[in-house]
Amino acid sequence: MPSHNCDIVARQIKARAAELGFDACGFADAAPVAESAVAQRDRWLQLGHHGCMAWADNHRQLRNDPTLLLPGARTVVSLAMNYRPVWSQPPDAPRVAYYAYGRDYHEVLRERLTALAQVIEQLTGCVTRPCVDSAPVSERYWARRAGLGFIGTNGCLIVPGKGSFCFLGEVITTAWLPPDQPCELTCGDCGRCVSACPAQALCGDGTLDASRCLSCLLIECHGDLPQWVSQVADGRVVGCDECQLCCPHNAHVVATSVADFAPTQAVRELSAQTIMQMTRGEFRRLFAHSAIARVRLAGLKRNLALSQPQD
After folding, report:
1. Active site residues
2. Distance (Å, whole) CA 107 – CA 13
């Protein structure tokens, strides 16, 4: 396509992304991940900072080169969608991280990314592959490259004006679209998240030690957890938002307009008693389309027991 046509198509894609509920959309040339970023991730893995997430060491080649996910790929379309809720749980409720309040984000993003991919194919005649975080894509790397935001000291992507309570997704395509300028902002010397982390899991360089991160431990680990978790869980049963709640970039962020991310009735009514009395059948029914399903009922009850005040 001539360059002026590419610019028109790019604007049409971004306009459609906004209509689909995405808060940011940008383009980056599909190419191997920069060696510095690969080296940083390799160090993180070598230090064992992926904790119980053994899957983080899988599909290394695919993660480091999006053209292996889609032969002939020329562009990574990176997208962010705000999920910060209007409503928050009462202080005495078993605490659930915001990302799990509503419908499972994998389902929501997959539907909307697929719709955007169809638009890209119609406009360009090229092939696409939508990716949610279940695909081996370095999401925050591509979001920064595509100009959506920067990777904060807490390891989250921070979208200027939108904060970090954002889900990320990508559409890889064989179409060439004019790349956006990478975001070069940083957190500077703020450091609030490092101080606020209840488990001291943040390394201060934009990475974290997942073997200490409550969000990882309470969601990804099955079986017994270290006893020290009970000293810092503080009522949490699904994930942890502390490093985002304290972030100045999230201080004045508006709530999401995506209805799918509104708290479900199951989350609104969640209590220690309902968790203790819950059966497997009830758990499957209540959380069939929720990210809470990943925790499993045994994990939910384990986390509740750990988070209760110790005698």
Report:
1. 133
2. 21
So where are the chain's domains?
1-311
Whole-angstrom CA distances from 27 to 49, 177, 210, 252 are: 30, 7, 30, 27
**109, 169 contact by CB (below 8 A):** yes
Output the 3-class SS for the chain.
CCHHHHHHHHHHHHHHHHHCCCCEEEEEECCCCCHHHHHHHHHHHHCCCCCCCHHHHCCHHHHCCHHHCCCCCCEEEEEEEECCCCCCCCCCCCEECHHHCCCCHHHHHHHHHHHHHHHHHHHHCCCEEEECCCCCCCHHHHHHHCCCCEECCCCCEEECCCECCEEEEEEEECCCCCCCCCCCCCCCCCCHHHHHCCCCCECCCCCECCCCCHHHHHHHCCCCCCCCHHHHCCCEEECCCHHHHCCHHHCCCCCCCCHHHCCCHHHHCCCHHHHHHCCHHHHHHHCCCCHHHHHHHHHHHHHHHHHCCCC
39: left (phi over 0), alpha (psi -120 to 50) or beta: alpha
Work out the angle at residue 194's Cα, subtended by the Cα atoms of residues 232 and 50, and round it to the nearest 5 degrees: 75
Q: What are the two backbone dihedrals, phi and then psi, of residue 232, each rounded to the nearest 5 degrees? A: -125, -5
**Tens digit of each residue's pLDDT (9 = 90 or more) over 146-201:** 999 999 999 999 999 999 999 999 999 999 999 999 999 999 999 999 999 999 99
Predicted structure pTM score = 0.95
Pair 214, 42: CB distance under 8 Å: no
